[in-house]
Structure formats: structure tokens, C-alpha cells
Design a protein that fits this description.
The complex is a heterodimer. Chain A folds into two domains: about 1-55 and about 280-420, no CATH class; about 85-270, no CATH class. Chain A contains 13 helices and twelve strands. Helices cover about 55% and strands about 20% of the residues of chain A. The N and C termini of chain B lie far apart (about 40 Å). Chain B has seven helices and ten strands. Chain B is globular and about 50 Å long. Chain B has a domain at about 30-45 and about 85-225: 3-Layer(aba) Sandwich (Rossmann fold). In chain B, the strands form two sheets. Chain B has a six-stranded mixed sheet with strand order 6-7-8-3-9-10, with helices on both faces. Chain B has a four-stranded antiparallel sheet with strand order 2-1-4-5, covered by helices on one side. The chains are: A alpha+beta, B alpha/beta. The interface between A and B is medium-sized, with 23 and 27 residues.
Chain lengths: ~425, ~240
């Protein structure tokens, strides 16, 4: 132990005596380790953001999308492909307590882009056409007024609920409730449809990557028939009475829809039923691949850093040929010389690793602050795993890339080394 | 006998051309002697010293150190002998740059099996060469004469039987050279065996015995009469 401390302090002083050289030597490892730390931290932060967005919806929601899906990928509707197999009668069937006993509420959706005109303002935004159960399904609260009822939705009453941002943009001074706004129809009628504002949704921020405040809500039938001119449902969300019943409800809904769609035997579903766990799985599988790829890049930069260290160590061995000869003349064995240079390489890379961890953490922290400033729910996460891996890899790189220069030093003949000018 | 060379031959094979640098050296040095090895450059005196100092091995011949045949010694055995039984003083000092005087002197102890208190031993070795007041100086902040005295202290720190000095005054002015020679004489008087390699007769005359080598052979081996011996006056530098 005493020997170790003596060797360490000697090596430390040797390295301190060449501060600039030592710093430049470890720069590659610093950047490599910082890269690993930043990538792992950003990956974890992005994942927490994704998970946060999804879990805000609530964990007891089941979504139904048209088009089949399997374990290998998400349904085609996710990629914007129009599939028309879901209908309002499917929604009614899911709502039937005999089919899915644990479903408490079901909401059908169609969505589109539109322009809202009112109070002398004109706003480009998106509309969501749904039914009266929407606020219960998605835990929505109202800033003022109220959401439309199922009756209003089914009868196609011309009533509208504004998202918070839309409301404040059109009616900056309040007084939205009871006013008339017009929605441009991009569908068959071509004109614009007047709506009476009956409610404003509370400010919600982004949920599942949608700005909940930059949209308007209109009754389902108007959005479906009059504005979009379609006769199918884009997606369905069902609320389950208890998280524990989510899995059984998924199969209830699957069975119901297979009956509805007359899918028999072993034929594939033409729809997909997913809960949030599935959605999270899909998203994390994508981010995991990204993280692995970026981690690989950082790993490569670490190896390049290691080669840099080897280069400098080789130069150092040549420069210090006389010193090596002297040490041998004074009684150093091959092994002692070899260990000295190996030790220097390991200390250098470990130091590079530590500096890289600090540097990478600072950068990750600044990025998380920036993301939070931009309004994202981004957590600053430095996993101990990342730190252990980085330090371990740094030491390993010192060992691997230090051994060749160290062996070269150990093999030097003391006489040749002493004569070396 | 401390050192016994029996028919030592050293040859180098240079692309098929074999050069005999040492052509059968026989030499004995007893403990406590002060021997100067003289000869012009290329005579083989440095090669001989490298072999006696275990920095090199003979091609053929026997080398008995302290009455032990060294033929089958491993590299590690030789490293230990260099560390514990021998001290080297070089013409160009060979101090570690950017390192304190004290740490330079303590360097051999780092490789020693019996370290003791390295700092204290290095300090007393430096005091023995009159540099007890320069412990914390960097090795490049002191004069040439002081550097060579640091090198002598480093050679002494492991308490060796024999000190090899290869042209110790070669890079020094005459005054510093005289101080260095005086220290070597004093060490010899205290019982250390000193083997000095030089081509300078006036330096060699400090020794008690002069061995002259020419073209790889010993051509003369004579004692220096006490009357002819040069004695340096102690001229410690401030």
C-alpha cells in the first residue's frame, strides 16, 4: 500500500510536471466519456419526457386504432395511413356493458386542421370532434362554461369548446362564452360553419405530444360529416374502471370488434387495441435503438481517444529513453518500468474519465435546463450506471492502449537508453 | 575478491562482421580499492565498465561478484544487484528534470526491497555530499558541480559496496571537478570501493591504482605511489 501511494504520488508529479501535455493527452478520453455521459443522460431525459407525456393521460385508458398491428410494430394509422374500418357502431358495441363490463366511458374521435374565425381574429388550429364523454375519459377540467353533452354531440348542435390558447388568442379580454365563432370547412360544403362557444378548457400544456390548449372541440357528427366528409372513426379511447382490469378489457374489446367486423377463426384483426404500456413499449423501443446507436458513436470516440493516448505515450517513451535507462541502472526491473508507464496511462485515462464525467454532467444539466425553459417536462438524470461504465471503460482503455508503450519502455536496453541523446 | 573478471570477451556482430571490443580481460578488484580505468575513446573501457556494473553481459568469460558467479543471474537478479550493491555516477549527471533534489536521491529506494524511511535516508545522503541545504531545489535549478554531488548522493543512498563513476568530472569546471573527486576520495577512505573511468590522467591520479586499456586489452595495471597521488582540497560550494 505504501509502495502504491509512493508510485502514485511520483506518477502524479510526473504528469503534473507536463500539465499541457497531459491535458492534451486526455482530451480524447474527456470528449469520449463526456459524449457517453451526455448521450445516456439525454436518452434518459427524453425517455422520462415521453413517459411523462403518456402517463399524463392516465394509466387506465385503452386506445383503439384502425388497422392491424402486432408485436413488431405500431398500427398503420400511427403513420398517417387512412383506414376506414372503425365505425360508430363499434363505439356503441364497446359502450355496451354486456360486451366490455369494465369500460366506464368511451369517446370516439376524428381530427383535422381548421381555421377559427371570431371577434375579428383568425386562428389556424386543429379541431377534435368527439362526444360528450371526452372530459370524463381524458380527465379534462373546464376553465369556464361546460363541455357539450352527448345529446348535443349526437344531434349535431353547433356548439364549440375552445382550448385555452385559442380562447385567449381570439378573446384576449375574455367574454368568449356565448359568442359566435366560425370554422372553415375544408370538406364538401366549402363555406364556414358558425358555432356558439359554450366552454373553455383549462390550460393543460402538452399531453402525448399534443398541445392540448391549441385546439377546439366540436360535436362528433359535425366534425365527421360536415367538415371532414367521412363516415368512419379515426380512433376510440375507452376508460377502464380500474388499472387492474386493463388487460382483460383489451381482450373484451378485441372480441367485441372481431364479432362486429365478422373476423373469424385465425384471421388477423383489422384494428388494434392498445393500452399505455404498449404505447410506452413502442416508444422506448425506438428511443432505445437511438440510444444504442449514439452510445456506439461515443464508444468509438472513446477508442479514438485511447489511440491518442497510445500515440502520446509512445512519444513519451522515446522522449524519456534516458530516464528509462537511468531507472534501470538504478535497479528498476522490467516489470517496474512497465508498471510505471502502464500506471501513467491508467491515471491519465482515469483522470480523463473523471473530467469527462464532470464535463458531460454539466452539459447534460444545461440541456435539461434549456429543455425545461422551453416548456418540456425534462428531468436531469445521470445514472450511476453511466458513471461506472465510463470510469471502467476509461481505465480499460488506459490498460489496453498503455500496455504497448509500457512494454516498449520495459524492453529498452539500459546502455542504449543511457547513451540515447 | 569483490570483483573478478576471468577472460572476459565482448564482441558485437554487426551484419556478419564480428568486432571484438574486449579481447579477454582478466582483472581483480578487492574491497576498498580505488581503481581508475584509463584509455582513449574506443578502447573498450566503457564497455568494460558496463559489464562490471551489470548493465551489460559478456559474450564469454566469467564474472564473479563478491565471489559469486553471475553467469546465471536473471535480469531481475541483475536489477537487484544494481540497486543494492552498486552506485552509478554518470558524466552527464542523469538527474530527473522537474524533480526535486531530494526526490532524485530517493529514486533508487523506490526500487529497493529495504526502503526504510526513504526521505530521511535521501536527506542524510545529501548531507554527506554537503547539499543538505538544497533538498527542495529542482534538479535544473542547481549548478553542474552540485548536480554531480546530487548524483553521488543518489549512488550512495542504497549503501552500495562499490561506486562506478564514468567520467564524473567530464562536464565540470576544474573547481567543481576537484570537489567531486574529493568526495570520491573521502568515500573511499570510508571503505567504499570506487571504480573510476576516465581518459584524463590528472583525474586518474586521484586513484590508488590505474588500469590502462587499449584496443580491448589491459596494457598496464599499476599502483599509484602515495607520493604521486593527487589530493583535492575540500572546496565546498556555498
Amino acid at each position: 500500500m505504501k509502495t502504491f501511494i509512493a508510485t502514485f504520488s511520483m506518477t502524479w508529479r510526473t504528469l503534473l510536471a507536463r500539465k499541457v501535455r497531459s491535458f492534451l493527452t486526455i482530451l480524447g478520453v474527456v470528449i469520449g466519456v463526456a459524449g457517453v455521459i451526455i448521450i445516456i443522460s439525454l436518452g434518459a431525459g427524453a425517455q422520462s419526457l415521453v413517459l411523462g407525456q403518456i402517463t399524463k393521460l392516465g394509466s387506465n385508458l385503452v386506445g383503439v386504432l384502425p388497422g392491424k398491428s402486432n408485436d413488431s410494430g405500431p398500427p398503420a394509422a400511427v403513420f398517417g395511413v387512412q383506414i376506414k374500418t372503425l365505425t360508430l357502431s363499434d363505439v356503441a358495441a364497446i359502450r355496451d356493458i354486456g360486451n366490455a363490463p369494465n369500460v366506464t366511458d368511451v369517446a370516439a374521435f376524428v381530427r383535422g386542421n381548421t381555421t377559427v374565425i371570431g371577434n375579428g381574429e383568425s386562428i389556424d388550429t386543429s379541431f377534435t370532434a368527439t362526444d360528450g364523454s371526452y372530459p370524463r375519459v381524458q380527465n379534462v377540467e373546464m376553465e369556464s362554461g361546460e363541455f357539450f353533452s352527448d345529446d348535443q354531440a349526437n344531434s349535431g348542435a353547433n356548439v364549440i369548446v375552445l382550448g385555452y390558447d385559442v380562447a385567449t388568442a381570439i378573446f384576449p379580454n375574455g367574454g368568449a362564452i356565448g359568442n359566435i365563432v366560425k370554422i372553415k370547412s375544408s370538406g364538401n360544403s366549402g363555406g364556414s360553419i358558425p358555432f356558439r362557444v359554450i366552454g373553455i378548457q383549462k390550460k393543460m400544456g402538452t399531453v402525448a405530444f399534443q398541445n392540448q390548449d391549441d385546439q377546439v372541440f366540436i360535436p362528433f357528427s359535425i366534425g365527421q360529416r360536415q367538415i371532414l366528409g367521412i363516415d368512419y372513426v379515426q380512433f376510440i379511447r375507452a376508460k377502464v374502471n380500474d388499472t387492474a382490469n386493463v388487460k382483460s378489457t383489451i381482450s373484451d374489446i378485441q372480441n367485441t370488434l372481431r364479432r362486429q367486423h365478422r373476423i373469424g377463426g385465425n384471421d388477423d384483426d383489422d384494428f388494434s387495441v392498445r393500452d399505455l404500456a404498449d404505447a410506452i413499449k413502442v416508444l422506448t423501443s425506438i428511443t432505445d435503438v437511438l440510444r444504442m446507436f449514439l452510445g456506439l458513436m461515443a464508444g468509438i470516440s472513446l477508442i479514438v481517444g485511447g489511440i491518442g493516448i497510445m500515440n502520446i505515450m509512445l512519444v513519451t517513451v522515446t522522449e524519456r529513453t534516458r530516464e528509462i535507462g537511468l531507472r534501470k541502472a538504478l535497479g528498476a526491473t522490467r516489470k517496474q518500468i512497465q508498471n510505471q508507464f502502464l500506471f501513467e496511462a491508467i491515471i491519465l485515462t482515469s483522470l480523463g474519465g473523471l473530467v469527462g464525467i464532470v464535463f458531460g454532467s454539466i452539459v447534460s444539466f444545461l440541456i435539461s435546463i434549456g429543455a425545461q425553459y422551453a416548456g418540456y417536462d425534462w428531468s436531469f438524470i445521470i445514472s450511476p450506471f453511466a458513471i461506472i461504465i465510463s470510469v471502467g471503460v476509461s481505465v480499460l482503455i488506459g490498460l489496453i492502449f498503455g500496455i504497448f508503450p509500457a512494454l516498449k519502455a520495459a524492453k529498452l536496453d539500459p546502455i542504449d537508453a543511457l547513451r540515447y541523446e | 575478491m569483490l570483483i573478478q573478471l576471468k577472460n572476459i570477451i565482448k564482441s558485437y556482430d554487426n551484419g556478419g562482421v564480428v568486432t571484438n571490443v574486449l579481447k579477454g580481460i582478466n582483472l581483480s578488484v578487492a574491497e576498498g580499492e580505488f581503481v581508475a580505468i584509463m584509455g582513449p575513446s574506443g578502447s573498450g573501457k566503457s564497455t568494460m565498465m558496463h559489464i562490471i556494473g551489470f548493465l551489460d553481459r559478456p559474450t564469454t568469460g566469467d564474472y564473479l561478484f563478491d565471489n559469486v558467479d553471475t553467469k546465471n543471474f536473471s535480469d531481475d537478479d541483475l536489477a537487484r544487484i544494481r540497486n543494492e550493491r552498486i552506485g552509478f555516477v554518470f558524466q552527464s549527471f542523469n538527474l530527473l528534470p522537474r524533480t526535486t533534489v531530494l526526490d532524485n536521491v530517493a529514486l533508487p529506494l523506490q526500487y529497493s526491497s529495504k526502503k526504510g524511511d526513504a526521505q530521511a535516508r535521501a536527506k542524510s545522503a545529501l548531507e554527506a555530499v554537503g547539499l543538505g541545504h538544497r533538498l527542495d531545489f529542482m534538479s535544473n535549478q542547481i549548478s553542474g558541480g552540485q548536480k554531480q554531488r546530487v548524483a553521488i548522493a543518489r549512488a550512495l543512498v542504497c549503501d552500495p559496496k562499490v561506486i562506478f563513476a564514468d567520467e564524473p568530472t567530464g562536464n565540470l569546471d576544474s573547481k567543481s571537478g576537484s570537489t567531486v573527486m574529493h568526495i570520491l576520495e573521502r568515500l573511499n577512505n570510508e571503505g567504499k570501493t570506487i571504480i573510476l573511468v576516465t581518459h584524463d590522467t590528472s583525474v586518474a591520479m586521484h586513484a590508488k591504482r590505474i588500469v590502462t586499456i587499449r584496443d580491448g586489452d589491459i596494457v598496464a595495471d599499476e599502483a599509484v605511489a602515495e607520493a604521486e597521488r593527487l589530493h583535492s582540497k575540500e572546496e565546498e560550494e556555498a
